[in-house]
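sanity check this fold:
=====
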Amino acid sequence: MLCSSPMAEIVEFRVPDGNGRTLLVLGLETDASEHALYLTFSAFGPLYSVRVHQNAPVAGPGYYALVKFYSARDASKAQCACNQRPLFQKSPLKVCICTRQRPFSQQGLGLSSYRCRELANHFLGFNSWSSRIITLQNISGFEDENDVEEVRTSPRSRNDKYLCVQELTIPQYGIRTRGVGLAELHVDPSQEFLMATNNIQKLAVHRALSDAFQKILIIVLENGKVAVEYSCPQEDHIDLLTEEELKGLVQVTELSLSQLSPVEEEEIS
């Protein structure tokens, strides 16, 4: 079977849409195939998700799967190599590229920091980028005297809010950009205060790294080589401030909070 020649494409650090990046796998004999599907298709490129579903009654017994790639090029290569082959079962599988999919709730969201790191390591290499925390501040505020009095009488019963600024550097492409992460948690006396504070700090750090990655694009050329471009729809003053300004002027960083892009849920370990 002849496959079309690969085209250049842009890969973003966002939840991929389904058009051209999702494979429909038909003819699965068991629902225990999710791990086998992951092992098979991840050989062609990083996967966002693998989901196995039972066939509709009109389609007869069996299962089908949706395998979502970050790259349409990788999805096309996988479809060409795997269609009408048994792979990990006795009967052959039919593998099709989904060209139309309904929008889903997470489409377009920024990737979690874990997925961002996974994608960057695949396309750029483990040692090609680095990040560092510029500032991590507690910006919890108490708007009125009632809030202040509540803190005095019950210091653990409050909303803790942390803001983090991280810098992402990709030296080979001369890229240096920053991301902002905000995390908030209501801490009450029934919770372990130190553990809750540690988790909310981690969440702010993760979100800041994700925000920084969303400002860059990975460009995969026809020959498979990779380029990286800085892409921000409007001038981001966070990238223009000095470190001293970022650390000392909390009010300046507060101005950017309404502009933060939503990201998928982070896992805190």
